[in-house]
Sequence to fold (774 residues):
Amino acid sequence: MAINDIFDIGRQGIEANRRALTTTSQNVANANTPGYSRQRAVFQSDARSATGGVMLGGGVKIEKVMRIHNDFVQGQIMEEAKNHGGLRARSEGLMRIEGQVNERGRDLAERVNNFFNAFRELSTNPEQATLKLNAANAAEDVARSFRSVIQSLETLKNEADLNLMGQVGGVNQLTREVATLNEQIALNQAVRGEPNELLDRREEILRQLSGKVGFQTYYDDRGMATIVSGTAVLVQGTQANELEAVRSAARGTKTEGSVEIMMVDRMGNRNIPVRVEDGEMGGMMHIRDNVINPILSQVDAAAFEFSQQVNAAHTVGVADGETSVGAIFDPIENASGAAGRIQINSLIKDNPDAIVGGLSQGPGDNRVALSIAAIGEKTVMPEFFGGQKGDTPRLTLTESLNSTMGFLGAETQRERQAFESSDRIMSQLNNYRESVSGVSLEEEAINMIQYQHAFNAAAKATKVGDELLQTILNIKQ
Amino acid sequence: MPTRVSTNQIYTGGLEHISQARGHELSSAEKAQTNKEVNRPSDAPATWVRASNLKDGLSTGDNIQRNVVIANHFMTAADTALTQLQEFIQRTQELAISAADGNARRDMILKDAQGLWSSVLQTMNSRYGDRGLFGGFQTKAPAFDAEGNFLGDNNAIRIEIAAGSEPVPINFSASQIFLGMGLKEGVDIPMIYKNFIQGLQENNVELIQSCLPQLIQANEQISLGRGEVAGRMSQVSRALDSYASERTSTADSVSQLEDADAYKVFSELARDQTIFQSALMTNKKVLTEAPADILFK
Fold:
């Protein structure tokens, strides 16, 4: 072994510890980078020569920079992320709906109740014009309140659709990034070994994507990820298939004009519907189709039943000296969209005195007013639970409206609790991931000191080698 | 808690605890501000629906109660009118007894009798506010014309005295009380007065004498009517009493369902504020005295 070996080994020591310090610096710099997995330089001693029958060390090298990572935990995070994203969208969406609709819904039930009370009051003195004006105002209030509830629900539904359209853009961006990263990872793995940063980046994008739309991931032997959502292949190798939000025709619980998600294939065809059940997009679609639409249809049914019953009772009445002006509310042909269309008969709006109290010309006849008031106590609506309607009428109109708001409350409570539970699970998983892969600045500070000392020592060894060489060179002088 | 702790865990954990404590504090503050345990359906869906239904029931009940009070006044007015009518009939009886005497001054009695008939007619046309009491559905016009002909109908104005129950009549059939129609021994009061006045005008003692038993019968007929009024007033009064106690218990139920226990709420608020302060203080200590800072110095 020559003295030069001391220089080689010293240089390797300096180089290896410099690289280790670089790795530490990289860790420190990325301490706050989402999805970053800490790295560790793996030192390996080199035994390369035998001198005088003795194996001497050949120095040190960094065998690899290892990414400290737990695939199992990461898999669990990906799995939970789609639940978490979906539940967050459901919970936040429902809380927003509840905030906007609750007051209006309760107000609607109260106004329907006030309407019947106005007719009950009219029944005590059907001759009084003030009470007829009061009843006409109550009718106007109910119609306005029905329309207001529907308007706010329709607005929320449109917002959900607009949000879905926005999310599609985000998903397409992410799938394109995954495809690009697939290519880079495959290339790097073949040429330079583990591309830690690229793998971290792809995992982070997949986690974000998982929060938006649920999917399954499969990896090929080149490390490329294939992403399949339902029956749609979003990413295969270096190819990303784009999603598109299109307005659909009425089908099942979807009303006409609802946004559906379709996949655009390589040929540009948009005929592959994507069944989105998880992630934020799935959550929004769930709220729209399984919460807003059933509530809309229940409020419509209540408005239809209300106007039908009231009109039927009023139409048979006889006004003072003449026949009835007919319906209090403009006739509605069917329940679909009834709450948005209900409005007071313009003849009554212009002349509240046209409201009829009785079945005869007797000014004290209050039988119509009584029968309208009695509608408020009649069970005319089926029960409404879990978005499904029963067959038999068991609820009064106000009970039905209250129970509809109760359904919204129960859904909100359920989703909020589910989200809180998922949030705790997600937090634990992230915590566990952090404890394995997260950067600890204390640890890195110690590592830094350790590598710095080793770097200094290697430099010292080189210096000693230099002194030895100088001594030998000085022998001649 | 895992043995290895990353720097992010310290910050994330701190943020989570602060945010959680803040959330609890806000929730308690909302209950304290509104004094309600249930502020929205999702707080307790079944409770919210029950409380809302009960509140709607209270609103309906209050409305009915106001109507029942009006009905009570209406019937009280009818009772007052019938009481007056009985007094007029009794006075007429006295006149009839005097007039039945062969030596009576019928010309003098006639004026009294005509005055009484006028009062009787006025009473039979009694009104409560702007509504006739005895004209059935014909509440605007007088029930009887000046000749004592009935102008109304036999319909009963009914009102609800309890939610969902069969409405009860609040007015009385004039044809039954005043004209005696449908009764076993009913008498036509205007006709009695017509005959009595005619008897006095014509000095027809027999006609006057024939009015006497009819006046007694008329008095009993009015008593019968008053009995009916009393019965209905009693029914209305029972409904009012029953609603008063029902209202108290319903309002109590609503309060129990949605109102917050002030002591509990303020204790929880104080506790949540302390937890929030502790979370802040603890994190201040943990985050500002990070060991890494010492190592990097």
About this structure: The mean pLDDT of chain B is 90.
